[in-house]
Amino acid sequence: LHWLTCAWSFLGMMALAAEQETWLRTYAIRTAQDIDSFGIVDVYTIAMYFNAMTITGVGYGDVNPTGLLELNLSTLTMFVMGFVWAWVLATIIQVVNNLDAFATHFQKVNDEMNAVMESRNLGQALRTRSRKHLHEAYLVQRHRHEQNAIRTLSIGLQGEIAIESGADRVCNCVWYLRDVDPEVLVELVNYLFADMYSPGEFVISKQSVAVIRRGSC
């Protein structure tokens, strides 16, 4: 935007150095001002005003290009401003999406699952159960997603975060893990992970202990 404004200012300043018909002289006549009274800052401000109108698509029409050179520069300005505006919108969209990266990822997973169910021609009952499972597993999947960031910390800090998040209450559900030393608890909670099963599924894991937070045995 600055460099385009400088280019327009240069063409406008040519009107001050020679008797040429430029956009600045046309603007001065239209506004009944003396062109010799325009300083460099004034010309730059008017040029910036024109480029701002171009990028926003407002186009009041009080500043117009004059001559073939200015028409070519005006066309170039429109294309450049179009790309700038597209870049601004893309940046805003990216920032909004990154406000909750997991929500964007979860929506993508749902879209992919819908595509899978459609391509494999699954029955309506199975589709409903699969969608319900994904919806119910939102918090579990978010917990797993957050673990990737937590793992960048030290083991001790990971344990303390897990305890602050309620992992100690999970350990208290197992009789031989109740009231263990804090140092042991910090190490222990690092081995806990959330999982979710659909109704009617069997939880079979001979090498681990499952604590049911919601559901029935």
Structure, explained:
- The structure is a single chain.
- With 217 residues, the chain is mainly alpha-helical.
- It contains 10 helices and no strands.
- It is elongated, with a radius of gyration of 33 Å.
Oligomer: single chain
Helical stretch count?
10
Percent of residues in beta strands? Answer: under 5%
Between the first and last Cα atoms, what is the distance in angstroms? 66 Å
Helix content: 55-70%
Overall 3D geometry?
Answer: elongated
Tell me, rounded to a whole number, the average pLDDT: 78
**Radius of gyration over C-alpha positions, nearest whole angstrom:** 33 Å
User: Could you describe the largest sheet, including whether it forms a barrel?
Assistant: none
Secondary structure: number of strands: 0
Order of helices and strands: HHHHHHHHHH
Structural class: mainly alpha
Model regions low in confidence, pLDDT < 50 over at least 5 residues: none
